[in-house]
Design brief:
Length: 740
Amino acid sequence: MWLLRLAWALAVLGVAASPGPGPSPSPSPSPGPTAPPPDKASIFADLSPAELRAVRTFLMSRPELGLSPSRGGPLAKNTLFLVELLPPKKRLALRYLDQGGPRPRRQARAVVFFGGQAEPNITEFVVGPLPRPSSYRPLRFKGGRAIPFAARPMSQLEYELLHRTLAEAMEPLYRLLRDSTGFWYHNCSQRCLTFTDIAPRGLAPGERRSWLVLQRFVEGFFLHPVGLEVLVDHRDPDPQRWAVQQLWYNGHYFSSPQELAERYEQGTLAVARLAEPPSQQLFSSYEPRGRFATGTPTEVHGAKVCEPQGRRYRLRGNQLEYGGWSLAFRLRSSAGLQLFDLRFNGERVAYEVSVQEAIAFYGGHTPAAMQTKYMDAGWGMGSVTYELARGIDCPEAATYLDAHHLYDADGPVRFSSAICVFELPTGVPLRRHFDSDFQGGFHFYAGLEGQALVLRTTSTVYNYDYIWDFLLYPNGVMEAKVHATGFIHATFYTPQGQRYGSRVHSHLLGNLHTHLVHYKVDLDIAGTGNSFETVDVRFENISNPWSPGARPHVPPARVGSGWHSWGSPGRGGEMGPPPAPAPTHAGLLPAPGNGPDPAPAPRRYHLAVTRHHENEPTSSSIYTQNDPWEPLVSFEGFLHNNETIEDQDLVAWVTVGFLHIPHAEDIPNTATPGNAVGFFLRPFNFFDEDPSVASRSPVIIRPLDPPTFSRLEIQRWTPASPGPCVAPGPFAYNGTYRQE
């Protein structure tokens, strides 16, 4: 049985791998990280650049599709928006992995925007077989629903057209913006304004109306709103029909830019005048300022992670091995990291563990703030995996992998060093004991240093940066964790806004918001026939059998709902009846039925358990952000089919999150401490003992001559000296991501 413990509050990846600077390779030679993956892991490998190009070339050559390049030209055209791996169906993959069945066909998922026809729509296709595609067919969603064109994610072309529309609309406001901010939008080459757009884009299905927050384009522009928000209707495929519908300026609404400009010229407008931003040490920058009171040094390097005898993990393509662990992984453009075929000592623990969605719901007084309900899969959460900085985002000694995405581009785009793998000293022993003799000595000491293997990537979704980690521990525990950092989503300060956040700078309100992250955990404990129970403890009164009249409080287990256990009837203990999914986050998010509920159903549950179905591969989609009222993937429908979940192939859907009340210390960026959430998978009577006893890293110390303790027997199975730690080398960073 494995425990699913919630921590609350609290491809070949088309990849090339590059090691960080460090000591000599491991004394146990193994294939390098650029070696091809084993056949079985490769069925889950992301599409290579050659495969991405082959899919695009094939679809572009089909005259019936009428595809045009994504960049440039009109919006009303047919374009290829996304290409990524379409993983094999689970039953086919298991037949291949476990029964020697045929290798599943390698296929791609392709998303096409059909904007150049009378009834625009979005269609997804299955394209294959790879590496030389020769056919395509529509990819159907559960229920056979069509994808509304208005639900599509934003493209770079649409942003360019939106910029032109806004620049033209802001012409009457040139004087107001110049005089009050020193920056402007219309006809600007220097001292420009920019904008952040808000979603959902409207209040009902089919709408595409976006509130735009205008900001001064300086470093950290997310923290520099100027008090002007603009509502633009851009639903029509023809940008000439786009229009500004409303404006909000410094606490007041206006029907048009002309009305706002007239009020300013008449002298009847309450103008928000902003001070000139300094050329150095801007509050939104990372430039050092101030001093620590203790005077301890910060201008020298701090502690580093090192591998004194080389790497203790093996990376072959997309297969990762460490201690008892082995798994295949990929970085899908649509939603991020996805683990497959997760095993410990050769026995499968989970078929899939993956990130599904990241949500942030805001409150506020300005129209943009009160409308903001971000669902980041709709912003290409898995495709914004920019370069990781060595020694900061990951240790210098980590292995770094490139990723390739074809997302709103006319070919594969390489994101260098988008993923890293490293072994992390946890700073706390995995286990230890000092066995005192209670007379000033001891019988023995034993300890095992704490380490974990980390698989990491990041997603920079405009202002916010998510750091995604999967950690593998030697004792059979896996941890999924995400840190939130980056710039807060902030709006212009007004006195009325203080009900919805904190004033974090002179003209800046940090808006109250809730972060929620959703994971899919397809556990297969000793096979696919699993059951689920919750376990809790409570006190009960019993008669004391050895002292009549006394009534001790004895805490029995297996009542109520607490931690969650999972397993096979023949392995890991008995399974009880499953409880109903428990509601979560009450009061932080809109209640169902209380007006439109643009929250995907997963946010309502800490944990939901369903049967595995091939037509329920994800809990969200890239379309939910812009059509949350009638989501294409309805997670609620996963739960209301009244199916038994006893001795079945089960999937756990896990929601973790936290409430963020912004504060001055979020300037310039939200810090990672205190802003991380996740969950653990822990073995529960799955092994005969702690499997980390197989590690050769413990130290055992026994006295040979008690009570004098002048001679000790020290047992260890690793070299006495760890050797050199960190190889010198200058810091290097590139930061580019280019189409190849």
